[in-house]
Design brief:
about 500 residues; alpha/beta; flat; disordered N terminus
Length: about 500
């Protein structure tokens, strides 16, 4: 399988950017692009008039509505921004454009929920969490993802199957439990859901399981029978957390569902699923304002470890193009072997990078998450510095990395350590073995060579970040020894 024009360039560049931060589509992609366009027009102006603000905020309003945010939420958001922007904090600012951006950032954080929300664990286990929502919103998969998350926090979860209405719902939860190694409690499809939940809590207490996650039945709409059943389950187990699971792809419908549930059932937070597939993000912008409860987690993929805590300030930074390096570092720290990273850094500084290292770093980078999501966590300015901004979506296709891996695996260990040995006949053999073309092999080697040179510049402190320090956090540049200025020799007469 070959790619016309050879392999694309971003893999090497991404490897450079991500090397020591170990150390698809963005959920607000459309909104982010439009807001940044508005702010570009503000920059460079010594002062902003009320007319300038009105024109800019009109564009902001249209961008938010286009992102499928609720109209009442948009109206209130714009009014707050304008009120603050016309106040003294902007009129007295040295850079009014930056001050307006800060105001928009602050209001976005307030709109999204201000504070990060976490699961409140019970002082006396087990902690009981009830998931509710409509059918098809992803409750069962989310129950598994939540179980994985609490496992990472050193807890022992139990999944509880109370959906007795949907065919194979109990079996689906069992399959999820088998995949992640978490037990599933069930009493068949004849017992009442409230009785199942109550028995599950007793079972958890007797068996040392300290988190009970109850997967309730959904419906295609919020009918009275559904609400009565959820209320019965909640009354039976008195949960510490009741979380509403919403499908981000349904947009305004998700907001309407949140509003309906808030009127009927008391819940403590929201989990937004399928956020990785929603380029608009309007539901996330509106749910907090409409329901009055915070978003706790967001589903960012189909894998059972793809559930992330919702950080309003980090999401606001990503919307405004500031990146989310902190989340990237946290993901990297969960994935990367720190001892291996330290050895790799030492090797890079003393011996240089070879194709074995190149392959290893690509594999580790892949474990952090999809390339598209990684790129969106990086500030736009950093991507611009490395030519990564504006890359086409297909350049982030995981199949590109598959081809890179296939090519490197088709080399002998000796060839990976010393790519200079790769003559034409060896390249032809590698292309056949990897199912690619000679052009693909040459493109990868060229990309690797560029990566080597840029890595040397970074270690030497000569990258875009400036002289005297490494480009990425934690990677120091080589320290030059202080030398005395040379004295000019006297010319002999």
């Amino acid at each position: 399988m070959s790619v016309r024009g050879g392999l694309r360039r971003p893999v090497g560049r991404l490897l450079i950017v991500l090397y020591d931060s170990t150390g698809c589509r963005f959920m607000f992609e459309t909104l982010s692009d439009k807001l940044q366009g508005v702010f570009r027009r503000f920059r460079g102006r010594a002062r902003l008039t009320e007319r300038d603000l009105d024109e800019g905020l009109r564009e902001v309003r249209l961008a938010l509505l286009d992102a499928d945010a609720h109209f009442s939420v948009v109206r209130e958001f714009n009014n707050k921004v304008k009120e603050r922007a016309l106040g003294a904090e902007v009129s007295e600012a040295l850079d009014p454009a930056q001050q307006v951006i800060k105001i928009v950032f602050d209001e976005l954080v307030a709109l999204l929920g201000a504070d990060e929300s976490k699961i409140t664990y019970a002082d006396t286990p087990p902690t009981v969490i009830v998931l509710c929502g409509l059918q098809g919103g992803g409750k069962t998969t989310t129950a598994g993802k939540l179980a994985v998350l609490v496992q990472k926090q050193k807890h022992r979860p139990l999944l509880v199957a109370t959906d007795i209405h949907r065919p194979a719902a109990i079996r689906q939860l069992e399959v999820v439990g088998e995949q992640i190694g978490v037990p599933v409690f069930k009493l068949g499809d004849q017992a009442h859901p409230a009785d199942i939940a109550r028995a599950a809590v007793r079972h958890a207490t007797q068996n040392g399981l300290d988190v009970v996650i109850v997967d309730t039945a959904g419906r295609t709409h919020t009918d009275a029978a559904m609400m009565d059943e959820i209320r019965a389950v909640v009354a039976a187990v008195d949960p510490h957390e009741t979380l509403l699971v919403l499908d981000a792809l349904t947009g305004q419908d998700a907001v309407n569902v949140a509003e309906s549930f808030a009127a009927e059932v008391s819940f403590d937070g929201v989990i937004m699923t399928k956020m990785d597939g929603d380029a608009r993000g309007g539901a996330a912008l509106s749910v907090r304002a409409v329901s009055g409860v915070p978003i706790r987690f967001i589903g960012m993929g189909e894998k059972l470890d793809a559930l992330d805590p919702f950080h309003p300030d980090r999401i606001a930074r990503r919307i405004l193009g500031m990146g989310d390096v902190l989340s990237l570092i946290e993901k990297s720290q969960e994935t990367f072997d720190q001892d291996q990273a330290a050895r790799m850094q030492e090797k890079l500084m003393n011996e240089g990078l070879d194709l074995e290292d190149f392959l290893q770093q690509i594999q580790q980078m892949r474990r952090v998450g999809p390339l598209g999501q990684i790129l969106e966590m990086l500030p736009k300015g950093l991507l611009d510095a490395f030519g990564g901004a504006g890359m086409p979506a297909d350049a982030m296709d995981p199949r590109e990395i598959d081809r890179v891996e296939a090519i490197v695996y088709s080399m002998t260990p000796d060839e990976r350590r010393d790519p200079d040995k790769l003559n034409t006949s060896r390249k032809r053999r590698i292309a056949r073995g990897s199912g690619t073309s000679m052009a693909d092999v040459n493109s990868l080697l060229k990309q690797f060579s560029q990566t080597q040179m840029m890595m040397k510049q970074m270690v030497g402190g000569r990258g875009p970040a400036g002289r005297g320090a490494g480009l990425v956090p934690g990677m120091p540049g080589r320290q030059r020894k202080a030398t005395k200025p040379k004295r000019k020799k006297k010319r002999s007469r």
